[in-house]
Design brief:
The protein is an alpha/beta fold. The protein is built from ten helices and nine strands. It binds NADP nicotinamide-adenine-dinucleotide phosphate (NAP). Keywords: NADP.
Length: 223
């Protein structure tokens, strides 16, 4: 029987590419796509593509326990923007962890979408709050029994941001016809941009050989 792969954020950018790459493997995994709203247009598209939708809210532990029941693999991502603050995001990440602890009999890989800890970089920054929350969650995962099967993945800023929110992130056309990408970094800084599309392929590689990636952190940069 196909092993169960529970994907959080399945209607979003990260989980969306994970489920579509898993689907391409043609039934190798029984994919459960987590959403708060199975009736949304995005959810309906996933169902039409053949995915099993499961309704759960990261703020509701009971719903999460049902969603992950019997899982062999879990891809977990929280959404800082929707959470609205660092405390809520952290609690959501810990709720998913709490739910995952009920699957230890079957769980082979717990993939946590994290970000680098800005507080421990050579030049430390204390207040990159959505990086802090992801790392505080990661620390708790590592301390728990789920830590044995944990793989952390870290994505750079998506190239897709340029298209999704060009007014905020995209290069701006100048009066002389040139394009300038304005970012609050030194002009010589090398930025690790990522195509979020590459995450799906990475996840399929990790679950092909979970033991190889257990307790490891994989950073993703795309060219
Ligand atoms: N943008 C970037 O450049 C970038 C780079 C690296 C990391 N990140 C991180 O990526 C994370 C967001 O991931 P994304 O870009 O995939 O987000 P996204 O495209 O905005 O999608 C958000 C997803 O989260 C789900 N969701 C939100 N609140 C939920 C809740 N309470 N319970 C269950 N599901 C919930 C939504 O599902 P439903 O609405 O269907 O319930 C949706 O699938 C952020 O935390 C951010 O820090 C972003």
């Amino acid at each position: 029987m196909a092993k169960i792969f529970v994907v959080f954020g399945a209607t979003g950018s990260q989980g969306g590419v994970v489920v579509s790459d898993l689907l391409r493997l043609g039934g190798k995994y029984a994919v459960r796509a987590v959403t708060r709203n199975p009736e949304s247009d995005k959810s309906k598209k996933l169902a039409e593509a053949g995915l099993t939708l499961v309704q759960a809210d990261m703020n509701n532990l009971a719903s999460l326990k049902k969603a992950v029941k019997g899982a062999h693999y879990i891809f977990a991502v929280t959404d800082f923007i929707t959470a609205g603050n660092v405390q809520t995001e952290t609690k959501q990440g810990l709720n998913i962890l709490e739910a995952a602890k009920t699957t230890l009999d079957t769980l082979e890989a717990y993939i946590w979408s994290s970000l680098p800890d800005a507080r421990t970089q050579p030049i430390p920054y204390q207040n990159v709050v959505h990086f802090n929350s992801k790392n505080d969650i990661a620390k708790e995962i590592r301390r728990s029994a789920v830590g044995r099967v944990l793989t952390e993945v870290r994505l750079g800023p998506y190239y897709q941001n340029f298209v999704k929110a060009p007014q905020d992130y995209g290069p701006q056309k100048q009066s002389d016809g040139s394009w300038v990408l304005m970012l609050p970094v030194n002009a010589a800084t090398r930025m690790p941009f990522t195509s979020v599309q590459d995450l799906g392929r990475l996840i399929t590689v990790i679950v092909e050989d979970p033991a190889k990636y257990r307790t490891k952190t994989v950073s993703v940069v795309s060219q």
